[in-house]
Amino acid sequence: MPDPSENVSRRTTLRLLTGAAAAAATTAPAATAAVSTAAATTPPATARAAAPPSTGGHVDALIARLTLDEKLALLHGAQEPRGTGQAGWVPGVPRLGIPPLRLADGPAGVRVRARATALPAPVMLASAFDPALARAYGRTIGHEGRALGQDVLLSPMVNLIRTPYAGRNFETFSEDPLLTSDLVAEEIRGIQDEGLIATVKHFALNNQEKDRTSVDVRIGEQALHETELRGFEAAVAAGTGAVMGAYNKVDGVHACENRALLTGVLRDTWGFDGWVMSDWDATHSTVPSLTAGLDMEMPAGRWYGDALRRAVRDGTLPEAAVDRSVRRLLTVMGRFGLLDGTAPARPAARDREAGARLAYRVAVAGATLLRNEHATLPLTGPAARSLAVIGPTGTVPFTSGGGSAHVVPDRADSPLDALTARAGDGARVTHALGEDLYGKPLPLHGTALDGQRVPAGKTSTYEGTLTLDAPDEWTFVVHYGGERPQVLVDGTELFARQDREAELFAGFGLVSTAPDGLKVRRRTLALPAGRHTVRVTATGGAHGQLFRLRHITPATRAADVAEAVRAARAAHSVVLFAYEDAAEGRDRATLALPGHQEALIHAVTAANPRTTVVLNTSSAVTMPWLERTGAVLQMYYPGQEGAAATAAVLFGDTDPGGRLTQTFPVSDTRHPMAGDPRRYPGTGGVQEYSEGVHTGYRWYDAQGVEPLFPFGHGLSYTTFTFSGLTVTPAPDGGLTARFTVRNTGRRTGVTVPQLYAGPSPALTLDQPAWALAGYRRVTLAPGRARRVTVPIAARTLSSWDPARHGWVLGTGTRTVRLGTSAREVRLTARARVLSP
Ligand code: BGC
User: Fold this and answer.
1) What CATH number did the domain enclosing 608 receive?
2) Is the C-beta atom of 105 inside 6 A of ligand 1?
3) Which atom of ligand 1 lies nearest, measured to the CA of 206?
4) Averaged pLDDT for residues 179-188
5) The pLDDT of residue 804 is above 70
6) Burial 343-358, CB ≥16 within 10 A → b, else e
7) Active site residue 417
8) Same domain, 428 and 561
9) How does residue 56 score in pLDDT terms, banded at 50, 70 and 90?
């Protein structure tokens, strides 16, 4: 398990866009679509987050008493002497009662040196299309964060899913701005209800990991406001205490010194009154950053320590500029009762059971059934009594993605155990690996390199030989804790020290971490026939050193597939777990499942077509094998209760509640980023968001491209009908949609009716063909019907006019579609949008 306090590469700097974001000629209200709020089970720990008392006088009095050094100490991170392993720390000023701040990741649970509830990845939360669940998710993290000694949570991440390749798609919500805004607002309320300060990140346009610290994003003002910024704006409206500046540049200026973003948009247009911190090592200057609106450098004081002191002392920067940033920070601390001892007492402990229950609830609610042919699911009758479980993540629980959102879970069952328990006595559940991630022991003469322990302070060398009858391809897999051992095959060093990237990612994510937490690296060699020498030198650091050297060859691979095929033939039905292990810091190079999983799926489905593929993947994958399967269940990274949730959905104890929050493309060449390197990943350090307002499903509509699975898609085990759609004008310039939904099947089930609005005839601005305008998650018992009302906010019907630097309402007659995805239309109505 990577050290939670450790982080991915941190370097950066960024220019912007809208010029001074002039007070917008806003004809639509700032509120985002109405959402149901809070399924809170207990009252908020503090009402301060929502209704701050006046702390201005107290803050000003404090500032007057602070020395310059004390002020500076509040504006950058430092190393906590005996910390909890959180990502950041700000020392505070004890003599004046300003407490230190601990800042912890992250989006899927609290990441410190202790265990915490590993919640399903945010993309899975989003798949539930349920803002009330986002509130509960926020409250769980908020409560745990406080119990674990934290003050600030580095979450939620709200950057839109723009490219299916992006490494952090699991850590954020959706490709759609409305859904994202609704969820982020409720999650922030939940976090802050518990007295933890939320930090919305990464402001803005950090939509990929490739070149994240340097890429210069160019985006038009209209697209910027209508897509990426919507979630941030909703976060500000929900009262987020902090905002984190992004690594990348925008219009030639690093986001963390981008005045147009940090001051123009954030403060002048949206009225943000909290503080802005940099992403880790994303600060690139002193005076330009501070005056642009970056209040705090994290995680250290390279720019805001001595350099800032010098700038004030030599008169380059007035001390009032420092005071302004200190005031922003202290104002939020005051709001949370951190300055006068009125913050509610920290919970004595986490509520592990409540955390586990919520993790399970979200995993079930976000489970997305993409395909279900010939009633493959749910598993009932003979299908439930004779089952082959295939795939490495069938036994190694895959709870979280890699990077700063990784959480050390309280516990995690293997899906195999959960399925076996659920199948019950008398059922036959077998397992075959199918695809080997961690290798087999080496057939060496002379030494066994499969669990060597080198004592502390000692260096040991091990040598063995292996003999090949014919040339062969060998993948050597080293597992290690601490310092990586030196591995030589025939005198060639396998894992070069200078391969910084590989070293950085060892221990990040499923494939790079062995089940017992050791780091894993691989190297493939073409070995000629004959005798080969393998020599390993390992040094036991302070705590000794454990390592293994293993191997994978075409023959071991074929044997794993053959075993899986035998298991598939011998069982009535198959559940095949497929993985894709995304991690912060890197994008995918292809949308295909990694390794040899496609070949495995082909072989297994040929042996048994009653195969369900369970996807533990971060984002879209391509599925050339789709038609051969019985069913496909998207489970993302389902958190610590993922095994039980997967079993419950597969066996039909609960309806799969999730819907896609991003479009799945057919191939690597049929999606918005395909074929245009200027769009993705960028050329010459510059990247153009030339898709404009047509992000995600809007691009597929604009280009007439068929997706594999559309945005909003997800199947139920029951059936629904929709009728009686009416759409009428609302007094605020919005619309109100009403319709009836009926469960016509034989099970209780979930449906997520979605409303998509067509363009306004009154605007000459570019508009999406269809844009999500409202939705509602509905659970109904068989035979039951419900009349549903969904408000469509005026903002959702508005476009950003770059000529006026503001929103304009898209008036006139507009078509509204009701459907079960961006492509599956059930009913259509027309309504007039009227200026209020
Ligand atoms: C990530 C942030 C994270 C920070 C602290 C950075 O590398 O981009 O999302 O909060 O590290 O761990």
Assistant:
1) 3.40.50.1700
2) yes
3) 8
4) 98
5) yes
6) beebbeebeeebbbeb
7) no
8) yes
9) confident
Same domain, 599 and 526: no
Ligand 1 pocket test, candidate residues 9, 171, 280, most atoms within 8 A of CB = 280
Q: Which alpha helices (H) appear in 131-170, and where do they start and end?
A: 131-147
- Residue 743 Cα, ligand 1 centroid: separation in angstroms? 44
652 and 731 share one domain:
no
Could you tell me the distance, in angstroms and rounded to a whole number, from the CA of residue 809 to the centre of ligand 1? 37
The domain containing residue 529 runs over which residues?
A: 447-552
Query: Which of the following is catalytic: 279, 281, 436, 801?
Result: 279
Q: Whose CA is nearest to atom 8 of ligand 1?
A: 279
Instruction: Determine contact, residues 599/186, Cβ cutoff 8 Å.
Output: no
The closest residue, in CA terms, to atom 3 on ligand 1 is: 404
Among 615, 642, 456, smallest CA distance to 542 is for 456
pTM of the model: 0.93
* C-alpha of residue 515 to centroid of ligand 1, in Å: 25
Q: What does the alpha-carbon distance between residue 739 and residue 749 come to, in Å, rounded to a whole number?
A: 18
| 106 CA: nearest ligand 1 atom | 10
The CATH number given to whatever domain includes residue 784 is 2.60.40.10
Mean pLDDT of 465-471: 95
Last residue of a domain, one of 552, 570, 590: 552
What CATH number should be reported for the domain holding residue 489? 2.60.120.380
Q: How far is the CA of 590 from the centre of ligand 1 (A)?
A: 24
Whole-number Å distance, alpha carbon 475 to ligand 1 midpoint, is 32
Last residue of a domain, one of 521, 552, 583: 552
531 with 583, same domain: the answer is: no
Residue minimizing CA distance to atom 5 of ligand 1: 87
What pLDDT is stored for residue 822 in this prediction?
Answer: 98
Q: What is the DSSP string of 661-698?
A: SSPBPSSTTSSTTTT-TTTTT-BTTEEE-TTTT--THH
